[in-house]
From TrEMBL:
Protein name: Iron complex transport system substrate-binding protein
Parts of the chain that traverse the membrane: none
Gene Ontology biological-process entries: cellular response to iron ion
Name of one Pfam family that matches: Peripla_BP_2
Keyword terms: Signal
Entry keyword annotation includes Membrane: no
Composition bias type Low complexity, residue spans: 43-62
PANTHER family: MOLYBDATE-BINDING PROTEIN MOLA, VITAMIN B12-BINDING PROTEIN
Residue ranges of domain Fe/B12 periplasmic-binding in the record: 87-333
Gene3D superfamilies: Nitrogenase molybdenum iron protein domain (3.40.50.1980)
Leader sequence residues: 1-27
Composition skew (Polar residues), residue ranges: 33-42
Amino acid sequence: MNKQHAQHQIWRKLGLLSIVMVLLLLAACGSKDNSTTNDESNAQQQEQTTEQTTEQPAAEQPGATVYPLTLKDDSGTEITLDKAPARIVTLAPSETEIAFAIGAGDSVVGVDEYSNYPEQANAIDKVGDTTTNIEKVTALQPDLILASVTMNTQAIEQLRALKLNVYATEPKTYDAVIEKIKNIGVLLDKQQGAADVADRMSQVKADIESKVASADKPSVLVEFSPGWTVGKGEFMDELLTLAGGTNVAQGNGWYEFDSEQIVKSNPQVIVYSSWYEEPNAILEGINARPAWKVIDAVKNNRLVEVPQDPLSRVGPRLAEGLQSLAKAIHPELFQ
């Protein structure tokens, strides 16, 4: 599979990422942890950039957003909203899922072709796939466009040139995804909905960390697209660690692995993503590599399929992706 084809297939599932977008999608700038101090007024919280926000205690109820509101996104660009957005366009599946999860689904008027969750997203006007249809987006007259820094680079530039508000993100860790959701909650005046999602995601992470804390850390290969894995600096690598595994991928970012190097690394578990058609092309590829028969994961039948979308989309369902990884690596702890 050549690089361009691999990227297209990944984007199909992550729409990603998502990740899916393989390197392009997931090779973006990392977002930084943001939070909001207890003593600050609600208006002061809004004026801070996403890079300066401090986490509020769980007991404190989020207030309403005060407009005008200025926030800086992961591309380093500040946007200012005069009022809560009534018309939202999302250019990546993760952004679509966030909008619906925090209670802003009724305001979404346009989505990308790969936004397939929740079910309501399928009925919304489509604005393109890996290439955004700028004319369709502008025709929808959006107050706010939610995008991925890496996946939607060209579209972001074009839309900003038209003076449209684009909030672009590229989180590199699980906690950064949580902060991203909270910041979008502020933008959309859906802070309570965002807080509920953030609390659930944080609880899932805490529960898994507690369960795997004293367990062995088996060596694991994650193959999310045929011949592709993920190394240092990306959220999926961190997910693997949080799930109680040790990543055999020693490279950086999303890359096409060397099969001989995987044999030398000898992973105890191979986790592969579900695919958009049967038979699963990833599993077919694993079984077609004769040299891999000596790998412990293959010999011991520790080849585990996990759902791709939750694993690869940097939105609310990343918690489910983390759970699926943990169960694949430590089935004995998650009966």
